[in-house]
Design brief:
Elements (H helix, E strand, L loop, with lengths): L1 H4 L7 H27 L8 H4 L11 H12 L3 H9 L4 H28 L6 H40 L3 H24 L4 H24 L1 H6 L4 H17 L6 H26 L24 H9 L6 H7 L13 H24 L3 H8 L2 H4 L3 H10 L9 H10 L12 H15 L6 H35 L12 H23 L5 H29 L8 H23 L7 H13 L11 H40 L26 H16 L12
Helix pairs in contact: 2-6, 2-15, 4-12, 4-15, 5-15, 6-13, 6-14, 6-15, 6-23, 6-24, 7-11, 7-21, 7-22, 7-23, 7-26, 8-9, 8-12, 8-21, 9-12, 11-21, 11-22, 12-15, 12-20, 12-21, 13-24, 14-23, 15-20, 16-18, 18-19, 20-21, 21-22, 22-23, 23-24, 23-26, 24-26, 25-26
Protein name: Carbon starvation protein A
Main location: membrane
Membrane topology: Multi-pass membrane protein
Length: 704
């Protein structure tokens, strides 16, 4: 505001300070307010990790490792890709929604869902909906959550495929994190139990080695041949990985890998923030662009309301997070007092990632931004065509020439940067443009670009493995109604069967997107955003019922306001995607355009260059349009039933208590990231107790 008022150019440094200060104040005051008024944690109460401990899915996990796992699991494609795409609207709308939205909506949802699930034995969101809403609302919630989860995991996997496809460097570095994580899991459980800092240092060193060695491997003849994988085969590899990560015990691969990748995630974002403070790049984007009031944007179509909120998605509010908060995380929490740090704090960290992604996008030349994010149909896929198209947009202060685009591609070590849609390459160019001014100079642009591409792939892949495991829990809850053995996590055959079915579901959607002639990410990302936000509204609806039945009144507005806002913008967005007559906006309009063209005997249309491609588009858009209808109908049923149950609770009717019975805890753990002096002293006494009674140490020696 000061810069605008004084007529100065806006500097990226203000984004860093404004966001960080907002988060600190929100965590200390609003997060604490929600904790005191709604959650009221009780550390004398045993968590599912303690009373249902099985050494596989229910394991008391050190809060620092769990924070890393939770953050790594929730921070997928959304906070990286969404803000970059939404930069088309200018820097101001996205910044406000990311910061304000996470404080009042996103972090509140993650925190409350984690607590609600933890007090119900780690039940999935779908199972809690059945318990709280009854048969009709429960069935609708199960269908919505399960189908939306498949879409979300498929889109996350697709972004990984697009980032790693034909990249030997990325495939080698990201692939190497798997054996490193397995080594860390065995090291912490058997070789050096309890040595979290020690294994962290080793893991971080091995991760850096994986990154550095990736360049050597990519430049070698054997490496370029062996790890240069085509996208369909890479998709199959990710499908296999998702299955294995979901069926192995959580301490073997999932938790240590996510903890390991958190070093790179948080480290890279903090490094970028420090670079912004030192370099102080000037923001090239206007506060509000011309496309904020138009529906024909070259990056994505649709007006600011509602599509800005749907596009940014995970950076401010994400239904996928509710799946993690009611999936793996509640089964690993040691104490209820840790929930605010993990749930509320983890979401604030993800929001900061979104702010950094937005800054990277709005700090690059806007001509380059539009050339990278406009479709190949518009640019022709060439530097000359991209320059002509961008200049024809008539945007104030935006001009680019073919030589600039070619030189930028050369600087980052790519053949071309034209029409590199999806957000990830744009973020990589922005990060490289800032980091090379701090470390290495112009000669390091290519290194920082490929480092960012690899960072994004690693960032997103952790959500795929955690999401698959959560989907497995959800299906097990559903099948458990017919056969109770499916709800027994120790039944390995059931675990393998449910995992296989879920992987088959999202894997088929992934392959559909990879082979889509229109570019899977372009057509599926809007569906991802809508599904994600509908799921958030469902999660908040369930929380509203739960806390209304606990006797709360006015404080319920902290849940109801973000729920209603999210429902309105997302249902309206769904309406446009279903009924809009514009083929660029509506799935069914696009479907009819290609179907009618085929009926007229045409063999090409838009990006579909053959009749077979056109038939593929017809099929894909029919699937996407049908899913849009399914999502919004199920979500509306859930929200209507939830509102009715809430009204009943406020009247003192139908007051069900679905929490697990209270079990006295025989376990201690500090609440925050850094233990207080009193906690340290008590922790030492518990350490002595576990030395005398190792059979009591449920966490394998390190999580007391």
């Amino acid at each position: 505001m000061l810069a605008v008022y004084r007529g100065e150019s806006v500097n990226a440094i203000w984004f860093v300070f404004a966001a960080v200060c907002s988060y600190l104040i929100a965590y200390r005051f609003y997060g604490k307010f929600i904790e005191d008024k709604l959650v009221r944690p009780n550390d004398r109460r045993a968590t599912p990790a303690e009373y249902a401990h099985d050494g596989k899915d229910f394991v008391p996990t050190d809060r620092r490792i769990l924070f890393g796992h939770h953050f790594a699991a929730i921070a997928g494609a959304g906070p990286l890709v969404g803000p970059v795409i939404a930069a088309q609207m200018g820097y101001l709308p996205g910044t406000i929604w990311i910061v304000v939205g996470v404080i009042l909506a996103g972090a509140v949802q993650d925190f409350l869902v984690l607590v609600v699930s933890m007090r119900r034995g780690g039940r999935s969101l779908g199972k809690m909906a059945r318990d709280e809403l009854g048969l009709v609302g429960g069935i609708a919630a199960f269908i919505a959550t399960l189908s939306i989860m498949l879409i979300i995991v498929a889109i996350l996997a697709m972004v990984v495929v697009n980032a790693l496809g034909e990249s030997a460097w990325g495939v080698w570095s990201v692939g190497l994190t798997i054996p490193i994580a397995i080594f860390m899991g065995f090291y912490l459980r058997y070789l050096r139990p309890g040595k979290v800092f020690e294994v962290s240092v080793i893991g971080c060193a091995l991760l850096l080695l994986a990154i550095i060695s990736g360049r050597w491997v990519a430049e070698s003849g054997w490496g370029a041949e062996l790890f240069h994988i085509e996208r369909p085969w890479l998709a199959i590899a990710i499908i296999v990985y998702g299955f294995l990560a979901a069926v192995l015990p959580v301490w073997v691969l999932l938790a240590p890998r996510d903890y390991l990748s958190t070093f790179m995630k948080i480290g890279t974002i903090v490094m970028l923030a420090l670079a912004i403070v030192v370099v102080r790049p000037v923001i090239e984007s206007p506060a509000v662009s011309e496309f904020a009031s138009r529906t024909d944007g070259p990056v994505f179509t649709g007006a600011l309301f509602p599509f800005l909120f749907v596009t940014i998605a995970c950076g401010a509010l994400s239904g996928f997070h509710a799946m993690i908060s009611s999936g793996t995380s509640p089964k690993l929490v040691e104490k209820e007092s840790q929930a605010r740090m993990i749930g509320y704090g983890g979401m604030l960290m993800e929001s900061f990632v979104a702010i950094m992604a937005l800054v990277a996008a709005v700090s690059i030349d806007q001509g380059i931004y539009y050339a990278m994010n406009s479709s190949a149909a518009a640019t022709g896929g060439t530097a000359e065509g991209a320059a002509q198209f961008v200049n024809s947009l008539g945007l104030t202060g935006v001009h680019v020439d073919a030589a600039t685009l070619e030189q930028t591609a050369k600087d980052v070590g790519e053949e071309s940067i034209v029409s590199r849609t999806g957000g990830a390459p744009t973020l990589a160019v922005g990060l490289a443009g800032i980091m090379h001014k701090l470390v290495g100079g112009a000669g390091m642009m290519a290194f920082w670009y490929h480092f960012a591409i690899m960072f994004e792939a690693l960032f997103i892949l952790t959500s795929v493995d955690a999401g698959t495991r959560v989907a497995r829990f959800m299906l097990a809850d559903l099948l458990g109604s017919a056969n109770k053995r499916f709800r027994d996590p120790s039944w390995r055959l059931g675990a393998w069967l449910t995992t296989a079915l879920m992987v088959l579901g999202w894997g088929s959607i992934l392959m559909m997107g990879v082979l889509d002639p229109l570019g899977g990410i372009n057509t599926l990302f809007p569906l991802f955003g809508i599904a994600n936000q509908l799921l958030a509204a469902v999660a908040l609806s369930i929380c509203l019922v739960v806390f209304a039945r606990k006797g709360h009144r006015w404080i319920l507005l902290a849940i109801a306001v973000p729920m209603v806002f999210t429902a309105v913008i997302t249902v309206y967005g769904s309406f446009l995607k279903i009924f809009s007559p514009d083929p660029k906006v509506g799935y069914w309009a696009n479907h009819l355009a290609y179907r009618d063209a085929l009926a007229a005997g045409e063999t090409s249309l838009g990006l579909a260059t053959t009749a077979e491609d056109m038939r593929t588009v017809v099929f894909n858009t029919a699937v996407q349009g049908s899913l849009s209808i399914l999502f919004v109908v199920c979500a509306l049923i859930v929200m209507v039933v939830a509102i009715w149950r809430t009204v009943q609770a406020l009247r003192g009717q139908n007051l069900l208590d679905t929490e697990d019975p209270f079990i006295e805890s025989e376990y201690f753990a500090p609440a925050g990231m850094v233990p207080t002096p009193a906690e340290k002293e008590l922790q030492g006494r518990w350490g002595e107790y576990f030395t005398r009674h190792p059979e009591k140490d449920l966490g394998g020696g390190g999580h007391h």
